[in-house]
Design goal:
It is a single chain. This protein is about 35% helix and about 20% strand. The chain is of the alpha/beta class. A hairpin with an 8-residue loop joins strand 7 and strand 8. About 45% of the residues are buried.
Length: about 350
């Protein structure tokens, strides 16, 4: 049976109520979230054996975070406890033409202060078949980057499949290294890459010229096939590349689809027009969780469709986590998207 390990930072999420601006009212909604933890929760909700690994401080807030993850069925036994703090991010949800806003307060967090050797990867990967991380964690600090590289090397040594969402975040690369300096080394140990066009450019220095289709506002299939091919040519270890395609009409209305290339076949998913978005934070993570589940249960075309449908549903749910079952995602895949009451 498949067992998935995810590794990264989980944070305290403080959000202004509804669509309010920061401190429009003296209230912030407190939950937890973070890219790799979000993936772990998705997979646990789908019934997969899933563990989340991170470094957390020794305090009651971190205990509450661990309890929440356990409540979803995520294995937290590999979490390391050290001195420090839990990172925070503040979220203001946008509406119509006003974009959402995220403010990070994660400097000096326990995982940012961690270093190579703090996690016993051989123990973490006992019985594991899949390992997932993102480009967010190596962006936090040199220590977190070293831990990430140490992790993917250990995973490959043990024959564990590695997936990575490149997830470029310009506001995080502040410790003296550029994203491409770190990610070009890390991706040498990755089997499945998830990204968007900007991620390829900023993290791997890869790009391709667009065609007239892109100028006319259409999805340029050849552009994404070229980028995926370039990544696989430069890194022969990559088995497949999944590219998310978000067309942002406004803060509340996005068109959402994705494509996947395995070096031979190119798949383009169904496109969802997502109007009246409830919360798009975690949308990419829900795609990653859906893709991992799909690749462990379906062929690649169906895996892609599952991932896009899962992410579509996440846009309807407040919070970082995608609180849906595999059956609900499969229902949407089969065309049940009217939103009619189920009785």
């Amino acid at each position: 049976m498949a067992k998935v390990i995810t590794f990264g930072e989980i944070m305290l999420r403080l959000k202004s109520p509804g669509y309010e601006r920061f401190f429009q009212s003296p209230v912030l909604e407190a939950t937890f979230g973070g890219g790799e933890a979000n993936v772990a929760v998705s997979l646990a909700n789908y019934g997969m054996d899933t563990a989340f690994v991170t470094v957390l401080p020794k305090n009651d807030v971190a205990e509450a975070c661990i309890r929440e993850l356990r409540g979803f069925g995520v294995d937290t036994s590999g979490i390391v406890r050290k001195d420090g703090r839990l990172g925070i991010y503040y979220l203001e949800t946008g509406a119509v033409q006003r974009p959402s806003k995220v403010i990070y307060d994660r400097a000096g967090s326990a995982i940012a202060e961690a270093k190579a050797g703090d996690i016993d990867w051989d123990k973490v990967f006992e019985g594991a078949t899949w390992f997932h991380l993102t480009g967010i964690t190596p962006a936090i600090s040199q220590g977190a980057a070293d831990l990430s590289l140490e992790a993917v090397k250990a995973a490959k040594k043990l024959g564990v499949h590695v997936s990575c969402d490149l997830n470029y975040r310009k506001n995080l690369w502040k410790y003296g290294k550029r994203a491409d300096e770190v990610m070009t080394e890390l991706v040498k140990y990755v089997d499945t890459v998830i990204a968007n066009e900007e991620d390829f450019q900023k993290s791997l220095g890869l790009s391709a010229e667009s065609s007239s289709a892109a100028e006319e506002g259409q999805i340029d299939v050849e552009l994404y096939k070229k980028i995926a091919s370039a990544a696989m040519a430069k890194y022969p270890n990559i088995q497949r590349v999944a590219i998310t395609l978000r067309e942002s009409k406004s803060a509340n209305h996005n068109d959402w689809s994705a494509c996947l290339y395995n070096g031979k076949e190119f798949f383009l998913s169904r496109k969802y027009s997502i109007t009246d978005i409830v919360d798009r934070v975690g949308g990419g993570d829900s795609f990653g969780g859906g893709l991992i589940y799909g690749l462990n249960h379906y062929d690649e075309k169906q895996a892609l469709e599952f991932a896009v449908a899962a992410s579509c549903l996440k846009h309807t749910i407040p919070g970082d986590y995608n609180r849906v079952s595999a059956a609900e995602v499969e229902s949407l895949m089969k065309g049940s998207g009217t939103g009619r009451v189920q009785r």
